[in-house]
Amino acid sequence: MAIANWSSPYQFDLTNPYNGTLLFNVQTGAGGDHLYLLDQQNCQFRIGVRSTKSNVPQSDGSILHHRFLTGAEIDLSIQLWSKPDTIACDEVMQDMLDDLNGAFRSLLNAEDNQGRLSWNVAGTINRRMLDDIRLLVYPELTVGGDGLGVVKVTIDSKYPYAEDVTQQPVDISDGGTTTITNNGTATTFPVFQVQGTTASFVLTNLTTDESIIYGGTTITSPDYVELDSFNNTAFLNGDGADLLSSIDIVSSLWPTFQPGPNDITISGADVHILWNPSWG
């Protein structure tokens, strides 16, 4: 009999271009005969760490290196059941396998926001997600002696954390300062949409002492420059002209939101901030 080890979370949603959403750990299918059950013991989540290294002789034999988080990977082990007490076989198994392969294959080079793995957080109304996921290891089916089909697959995300599904927009007017509290456990990288007619502005996280110093191409309302602090990009209206050359790269540090309160201020323009509390 299929036994879900997940006390929490229970339901997982895989958002993908192929079939929209594929649900795990709940009964699905046109005839209610599909149960994609995640084997908790064989599902693993990990975040990679990379370190710069320099072979420089030191009197004490050591040197401090810079370390970087390289994103997240998750291995999924998916059991194919028809019902909690019935192993999927024959046409049902093939149908489930086709749906799985289609969903994961479509994540090979999915577009922005087309790939997400989200789940419920026990005891709260919140949901978390791995955003912008892509296929890393193609699905592989094995069938045991009891006839149970198990599909193993690996997906990854460029972000080294999980995020709340619900985005939290914040607006700050020219000259204003607002405290933004990241209730998560990981430093997160927001998107800033700087608005108004201006040729120069300074956007600062006073808590972390990180600032973007902009001076150059004039932004004319209602246009805005979108600053992506994770990718370090600056584009007019998010997908227009590249305005990175207008940023003083030498004197700028892309603002992030550390866990806890962050005091954000801007001078020379208004800003609309898009961000999600992050966990890692």
Describe the structure.
The two termini are about 35 Å apart. The chain is elongated and about 65 Å long. Strand 18 and strand 19 (about 235) form a beta hairpin. The chain has 1 helix and 22 strands. The strands form 4 sheets. Strands 3, 4, 5, 6, 7, 10 and 11 form a 7-stranded antiparallel sheet that branches. The protein has a 6-stranded antiparallel sheet with strand order 2-1-8-9-12-22, with helices on one face. Strands 13-21-15-18-19 form a 5-stranded antiparallel sheet, with no helix packed on it. The relative contact order is 0.16. The model has no long low-confidence stretch (mean pLDDT about 90). With about 280 residues, the protein is mostly beta strands. The chain folds into 2 domains: about 10-160, Elongation Factor Tu (Ef-tu), domain 3 (Beta Barrel); about 170-280, Jelly Rolls.
CATH topology of the largest domain: Elongation Factor Tu (Ef-tu), domain 3
**Helical content class:** under 10%
What is the CATH domain class of the largest domain? Mainly Beta
Strand content: over 45%
- Strand segment tally: 22
Mean pLDDT across all amino acids: 90
Structural class: mainly beta
Largest sheet: 7 strands, antiparallel
Number of helices: 1
Shape estimate = elongated
Q: What oligomeric state do these chains adopt? A: single chain
Q: Over the alpha carbons, how many angstroms does the gyration radius reach?
A: 23 Å
Question: Which structural traits does this protein have?
Answer:
280 residues; mainly beta; Elongation Factor Tu (Ef-tu), domain 3; Jelly Rolls; 2 domains; 7-stranded antiparallel sheet; 6-stranded antiparallel sheet; 1 helix; 6% helix; 48% strand; elongated
